[in-house]
Amino acid sequence: MSKFVLLLGGGLHVTDRLRHQVAGARVLAADGGIAHAAALGLEPELWLGDFDSASAQLEAQYAGVPRMEFPAEKDMTDGELALNEAYRLGATEVILCGAFGGERTDHALLHLTMATRFAAEGRKLILSSGYEEAHPLVAGAYAFDFSDGTPFSIVAFSQLRGLFISGARWPLKNMELSFGSSLTVSNAVRGQLHVSLRSGEAILIAAPEVA
C-alpha cells in the first residue's frame, strides 16, 4: 500500500490523530499548501502548481524541493493536479491536508466532490483540517475509528438509497435520503460507527477533536 499526503492551501490544526495518519506517507505540496509541511514535520518530495499563492518566504524556505510548474490559466486546480500526480506515482491511499477553510469556498467544495468522484472509482481518500475529517461515501460498507461522542454529519450529493447507520446516537436502517436533506446532520458516535450505503454519493464529516 502506498500512502500519499497532499498539502493544500486551506486551514490546518495539527493534532496527534493527524500526525499518526500522515506518518510514513510520501508528500506532495500544492502551491501555498507547502506552508503546512513544517508543522506536520513533513518533507515534500514535489511542489507543484502555478505558485500564485506561495509567499517569498516559502519560496526561499523550500527552494530545494523539486517543482512542477503550471500556467495560471489552466483547466485544473492545483489540488486536482496534485491528486492526479499522486495517482500517477502509484498512490493507493491519499490524505488531503488543508482541504477545508481558507479564502476559497469553491476550492473547499471542489475537494469534497472531487474526493467523492475518485471514491466512486474505488480510491481511498480522507480529507482533514485537523479539527474536521471528511470521508467520501459511495455504495459499500464502512467502519470508523472515531471516539465515543464524536459529532458527525452525512451530506448527500445525490439521492441515497439503502442507508444504514449504527453505533450512533440516531441510528438509521435502510433509509432513502433525498439530495439536500438535513436528516443526517448533527449526529454523534455511540460505540463504533458503521455506515453502509446501497447506492448514491455522500460525504461523512466528523469532528474528532470535539469528542
TrEMBL record:
Pfam families cross-referenced by the UniProt entry: TPK_B1_binding (PF04265), TPK_catalytic (PF04263)
E.C. no: 2.7.6.2
GO molecular function: ATP binding; kinase activity; thiamine binding; thiamine diphosphokinase activity
GO biological process, one term: thiamine diphosphate biosynthetic process
Residue span, Thiamin pyrophosphokinase thiamin-binding domain: 140-203
UniProt-recorded name of the protein: Thiamine diphosphokinase
Membrane-spanning ranges: none
Naturally occurring in which organism (per UniProt): Phyllobacterium endophyticum
InterPro entries, A to Z: Thi_PPkinase, Thiamin_PyroPKinase_B1-bd, TPK, TPK_B1-bd_sf, TPK_catalytic, TPK_catalytic_sf
Keywords: ATP-binding, Kinase, Nucleotide-binding, Transferase
